[in-house]
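Schema walk-through. Below, the input block comes first and the output block second. Nothing else is stored per chain. Lengths vary across the set, and this one has 236 residues.
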Amino acid sequence: MALTPNEFLNGLTGLIYAVIVICVGLRIASKYFKYKQITMLYIGLGWIGFATPYYAVSLSFLSVLITGEPINDFLYFLIVVGFIPIFLLLWMAGFTELLYRNRQKIILIIYAIFGGIFEIIILYALFTDLTIIGVKEGPVDTNWSIIVILYFIPLILTIIITGFLLSFEPLKSDSPEIKLKGKFLLIAFILFTIGEIIDLILDVPITRIILMISSIAFYFGWIMPEKMKKRLLRKN
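--- output ---
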């Protein structure tokens, strides 16, 4: 199977973005083992889970390059949507550890219920009718069903809203260092919002580039190299 130029660019940028997200997420999550902060583990793993569509795209892209054929539709859709409720729950656990701790239990229960319902629908679709999830258009593109779109929209809104709330909190701090990290988080979620909106309308490589920059800014919002921090704080 030959990839069109657009499919190649989509696949390549999707692969690069997937690698960046995994590296960023694992780096943040690894801080749990050093500082014993469970929040870092939740946030890092949750961030990794938000890029699951691009993991499927990456594997399918690599499969075409190596074998000439994309991965099968079952595996593709399983990777894209099969684990999203779990990763979302991890993200919300991290979010509520930092904010709304007093409402953590009820928030997690609500997300667990809706995630469980979605998971049942996805498992049913995987073993009976994949068109309930969507229809593949080439090796790296997909036309999603209305059911998945109706889940993706509140999912993206959740990420954006919680992301901005996490960004605004450090901006209130009197500490220049904490405020600087808040600025990077704000940049990350502004870019994430722009990238996701464009991605819903157009399937073009520029969305992956925007999301790459978003992920790097997200990393600096949690873990900032000392040299970079000193240089930026000196300018302020």
